Amino acid sequence: MNCRSTLKGDFIILDLDNTYDNTSAVFVSYFDSNSESVKWHARLGHVGQDQMERLAKEGLLDRLTRVKSPRCELCLAGKATIKPFSKVMRASSHLELIHSDICEPMNVKERHGAIYFITLIDDYSRYGYGYLLSHRYEALDVFKHFVAEVENQLERRVKIFRTD
Description:
The structure is a single chain. By secondary structure, the protein is of the alpha+beta class. It has helices spanning 33-43, 49-57, 73-81, 139-154, and strands spanning 4-8, 11-15, 26-30, 97-102, 116-122, 128-133, 160-163. It is built from four helices and seven strands, in the order E-E-E-H-H-H-E-E-E-H-E.
């Protein structure tokens, strides 16, 4: 069967004979562009109205040609609860502040049995180190090794160690 469809306003017109005259069989279906806008807004990671309009103009949002600003409860809730960042202390030299975090157990073991990893990041240079761990209790030994290594390399002492 040969057919063609077009979007007219909020309706999809399906012309089964490709003639668009009064003798052909034409089916009209309602197209809810508002619900499509909401779907695309969520699919694209809750992008803003201007980005949605640009993507629609470029024809990248399926058959959506007109974007209606969706009322997204997630976006409204997020914007209402987010507080501005306060001024935080930033390091003014190497090793003044070290950030660290240990990841939760990974689903797949590393080749040597590691299921955790620890990150250690120098706040000043943003240089990061990552170490694989088989058990969480290994973190202290890794930290001691890290401190000895970086203090020797940079000829400075670690001043503040912050964990998340």
